[in-house]
Design a protein that fits this description.
Elements (H helix, E strand, L loop, with lengths): L15 H13 L4 H10 L4 E8 L8 E8 L3 E6 L4 H8 L6 E3 L6 E3 H21 L5 E7 L1 H16 L7 E5 L7 H10 L4 E6 L19 E4 L5 E2 L4 H13 L8 H4 L3 H12 L1
Parallel strand pairs: 3-6, 6-7, 7-8, 8-9
Antiparallel strand pairs: 1-2, 2-3, 4-5, 9-10
C-alpha cells in the first residue's frame, strides 16, 4: 500500500489520495472527542470544535454529531453517520413530509432537514471562524453523515455565496433531495462533490426514487474492489449481482457489509497501491 503519513494540506482539488484522507476524517467522526483531538493534532490541525445536538422524534436517531478541525491551510468538517438498518428504516418511509432545502431551494427528506438544522449554526460558526487566512474548506461524512456533509456545504454556499467549499467527499450517502435541489447542487459544486458507493451498499438505495435523487458525480467501487469513475447501467447491475453472489451462505448481508466505513477505506487504499 502506498504510504500515507499525514493529510496533504496543499490539496485544492480531487485526487484519490485526498479521497482516502477524507474517508479517514469521516471515520474519525465515530470516535470520542479525545481521540478526534489527538488525531487532529497528529495530522497538523491545531483547532477543533465539536458539534453535538439533539432533534425531536418521530425518528429513532435523535443526535447529530460532527467536528470541525482547522489549521493555517485547511478546514475540514466531518459528520458522524448511523447504523445501516436504522437509517434504512426511517429513510424508506416515503410518507414522511419533505423539508425545505438549503436556501429555500428544492426539498430534502424531513429527517435530513431536522438533523442538519439542529447543528448547522455551530458548523457555520466554526468554519467561518477557522477560515481566517483563505484556508481551503472541505466537508465529509459517511452514511447519514454523508447526507449532512453535502447539505451543509450547499447551505453554506446558498446562504453565503462567497463561501463555496473546495470539496465534498461522501461515502455510502443516501439519496438526499428532490431533482430541483440536486440540479442546483450540481451547478454550484460541479467537480467539487465526490460521492463514493461501494458495490451493493444498501444505504445509497434509499430514500426511494422518484421523490429523491442523487447528485451527479459518482465514484463506484465494483465487486472486485476496483474504483470506477464510469459504470454503464447494465454493467453496474451485473456487478451488483456478482457482489451478492460472492457470499453464497449470506447474500443479503452484502448490502450491510459494503456500507461499513472500514470497507470504503480498505478499497480506496488498495486502489492507491
Amino acid at each position: 500500500m502506498t504510504s500515507m503519513s499525514t493529510v496533504d494540506q496543499s490539496a485544492t482539488g480531487y485526487s484519490l489520495r485526498h479521497a482516502c484522507w477524507m474517508a479517514h476524517a469521516a471515520a474519525l467522526a465515530y470516535r470520542s472527542r479525545e481521540e478526534i483531538e489527538a488525531k487532529a493534532a497528529e495530522w497538523g490541525f491545531d483547532r477543533v470544535r465539536h458539534h453535538e445536538t439533539t432533534f425531536s422524534p418521530p425518528f429513532p436517531l435523535e443526535h447529530t454529531q460532527a467536528y470541525t478541525m482547522g489549521s493555517d491551510r485547511m478546514v475540514i468538517t466531518a459528520f458522524r453517520g448511523t447504523e445501516p438498518a436504522q437509517i434504512r428504516d426511517w429513510l424508506s418511509d416515503a410518507t414522511t413530509p419533505p423539508w425545505p432545502g438549503p436556501g429555500k431551494t428544492g426539498l430534502v427528506h424531513y429527517g435530513f432537514g431536522e438533523a442538519l438544522d439542529s447543528v448547522y449554526p455551530r458548523v457555520r460558526d466554526a468554519v467561518t471562524e477557522f477560515q481566517d487566512n483563505e484556508q481551503t474548506v472541505w466537508f465529509t461524512g459517511h452514511s447519514l453523515g454523508a447526507a449532512l456533509a453535502l447539505l451543509a456545504a450547499l447551505r453554506l454556499h446558498l446562504e453565503e455565496p462567497n463561501l463555496l467549499a473546495d470539496g465534498v467527499y461522501t461515502f455510502g450517502q443516501p439519496r438526499v433531495c428532490d431533482r430541483v435541489l440536486a440540479q442546483a447542487h450540481d451547478k454550484a459544486f460541479r467537480g467539487r462533490t465526490h460521492r463514493f458507493v461501494n458495490n451493493n451498499d444498501i444505504v445509497p438505495q434509499v430514500p426511494p426514487e422518484p421523490a429523491y435523487h442523487h447528485t451527479a458525480t459518482l465514484h463506484y467501487i465494483d465487486a472486485s474492489g476496483k474504483l470506477r469513475d464510469r459504470m454503464p447501467l447494465l454493467s453496474a447491475a451485473a456487478d451488483r449481482v456478482k457482489g451478492f453472489t460472492a457470499d453464497m451462505f449470506s447474500p443479503a448481508s452484502d448490502g450491510v457489509r459494503d456500507h461499513l466505513m472500514k470497507q470504503y477505506i480498505s478499497a480506496l487504499e488498495k486502489n492507491l497501491s
